[in-house]
Amino acid sequence: MKTKVNYFYGTGRRKTSVSRVFLKPGKGTISVNGKKLDEYFERPTARQIVMQPLATLGKEGQFDLYITVAGGGKSGQAGAVRHGLARALEKFDAEFRPALKQAGFMTRDSRMVERKKYGKPKARKSDQYSKR
Questions:
Q1: Is 121 inside a domain boundary?
Q2: With the C-alpha atoms ordered 77, 53, 35, 25, is the resulting torsion angle positive or negative?
Q3: Phi and psi (nearest 5°) for 23?
Q4: For residues 86 and 88, what is the distance between their CA atoms, to the nearest angstrom?
Q5: Could you tell me if residue 114 is inside a domain?
Q6: Could you say which DSSP state residue 96 is in?
Q7: Nearest C-alpha neighbor of 53 from the set 67, 43, 35, 39
Q8: CATH number of the domain bearing residue 39
Q9: What is the mean pLDDT of residues 7-27?
Q10: For residue 63, is it within any domain?
Q11: Is 108 domain-assigned?
């Protein structure tokens, strides 16, 4: 007979990336889209961003994480995972919320790429101005 696994879930978003983070107490194994954290996020800064909520609480190696992330680039995905992990940790223990909120991990980063405007080569770049 199979036993039900108790996961704590959090959704994270950043730019156009969306992550789903499933958290349960464990040995500290982390899988992102079926790969290990080091294989999926090659840049050390991206791995550091992902681990920030756990580092803030001093809980590294105490939770198993199963993460799916889609859309955007690696930087946005790392931010989305951080946001989702913070939300999952809050569901696990509500007493974590003040520390996570103080560090700014509970707030969705609303900065997005500005759209390109017609008549311009990019969002704000214009053709060179000539006075005469």
A1: no
A2: negative
A3: -120, 135
A4: 5
A5: no
A6: G
A7: 67
A8: 3.30.230.10
A9: 94
A10: yes
A11: no
